[in-house]
Amino acid sequence: MDRDYQELLNEFGSPLYVYEEEVIRKNYERFKSAFQVENLKIFYACKALSNQNILSLFKSYGASLDCVSIEEVELGIRAGFSPQEILFTPNCISEEEYERAIAFGVRINVDNLPALEYLGMKYPGIRLWIRINPHLMAGGNRKISVGHIDSKFGISIHQLPHLKRLVQSLGIEVEGIHTHTGSDIIDPEIFIRAAELIFGVVREFESVRYIDFGSGFKVPYRPEDTETQLEEFGKKFGDAFNEFCTSQGKEYTLCFEPGKFLVSNSGSFLTKVNIIKQTTSCVFIGVDSGFNHFIRPMFYDAHHELSNISNPGGEKKVYNVVGYICETDTFASDRFISEVKKGDVLRFSNAGAYCFSMASNYNSRLRPAEVLILNGEARLIRKRETLENLLENQVILEL
Ligand SMILES: *Cc1c(COP(=O)(O)O)cnc(C)c1O
């Protein structure tokens, strides 16, 4: 495979994002088969990787789509999703953006009481989903929380009486109850505990058919990292869900919205070594990229495994890998990788989720190309940007 990456880089240029369709499909199948329930709906959270071809792949697998902006909704519709296959889960958007979503006919997940009131008044009997924040903290571990008390997301579970009054007086049809954590969940027990609280909310609304637990499924970034034990979790969670359905005498649909879990490990980021710089304390490798292309290491302190694909068996040395942006942009510190020479190609793994989709043009750099490996063939799915792309929306004055 290392030689293949080298060839891809020669063909499509550097830096480059490469995704493997087979990996995405297997992740999706694994996710789907982990939950033994009658009705399961998987909304791919397309903010993780939003290339139209990736959206079309998920459509072909039978997935639905989770969108957090009206632009994502439009991309989903262009990729062939029907409005009813799209769940729109925004927060802090304008009334105008809700109007646009209504015009598209997508399912709308409301995250705050003012929006609920606005929509309920304007569209009597409107069908909506409601995002609940259960404020659940895992046993003493402040890092694994399902929504701090001061989190901006969702309608607080403590506002349930108020929510019920609004729903009743405005005649809103609550079709779905939703919750989403937003963080890497190490201990799936937290989902089970969230479920107990969410089931309590569901009991309050006769019209509910969908129960959506969002996402937060962790993927391993370091070799020693744990990942969500999906099968074990799916079994446990499915049992709890089925039990709830039985107790209510009702067939609900269980929903999740994985993004990272489905695409992260399908992606690689390839970048070329421009310089090797020995300082008095360490060796810097300067590559032809920066946080403009790949920001997770700097933004989230994320660890991405790294290898020198030009010298796979070489003697290992310690390096710091940095970018070419005019700020400190460190991809990796004190990493043992095969000896690096100028012109070598480095590969960062787990670069499928929140990598290209967070890329920018900072320093007026052009964003890289994207390639999809489909049925063993490398297909270009996004051209490298050109200077024209940078200029196309600028209005040039006579100065
Ligand atoms: C970001 C997000 C997701 C996906 O989260 P992952 O950690 O990538 O799986 C799902 N639902 C909502 C509402 C989100 O904002």
Index terms:
globular, 30% helix, binds pyridoxal-5'-phosphate, Lyase, Ornithine Decarboxylase, Chain A, domain 1, 2 domains, 12 helices, 20 strands, nine-stranded mixed β-sheet, 399 residues, alpha/beta, single chain, TIM Barrel, eight-stranded parallel barrel
- The first-to-last residue Cα distance is 53 Å
CATH class of the largest domain: Alpha Beta
* CATH architecture assignment name of the largest domain: Alpha-Beta Barrel
The number of distinct helices, counting runs of at least 4 residues, comes to 12
What's the helical proportion of residues? 25-40%
Instruction: Round the Cα radius of gyration to an integer and report it.
Output: 23 Å
Walk me through the structure.
- The strands form three sheets. Strands 1, 13, 14, 15, 16, 17, 18, 19 and 20 form a nine-stranded mixed sheet that branches. An eight-stranded parallel beta barrel has the order 2-3-4-5-6-10-11-12, surrounded by five helices.
- It folds into two domains: 2-17 and 264-382, Lyase, Ornithine Decarboxylase, Chain A, domain 1; 21-260, TIM Barrel (Alpha-Beta Barrel), CATH 3.20.20.10.
- The chain starts with a helix and ends in an 8-residue tail after the last helix.
- The chain is an alpha/beta fold.
- The chain has helices spanning 2-12, 21-33, 52-61, 70-78, 95-104, 113-122, 160-170, 189-202, 230-248, 260-263, 296-299, 387-391, and strands at 16-20, 40-45, 64-67, 86-88, 107-110, 127-133, 137-138, 141-145, 155-156, 173-178, 210-212, 253-256, 267-278, 283-287, 306-308, 316-322, 330-338, 345-349, 369-374, 377-382.
- It binds pyridoxal-5'-phosphate (PLP).
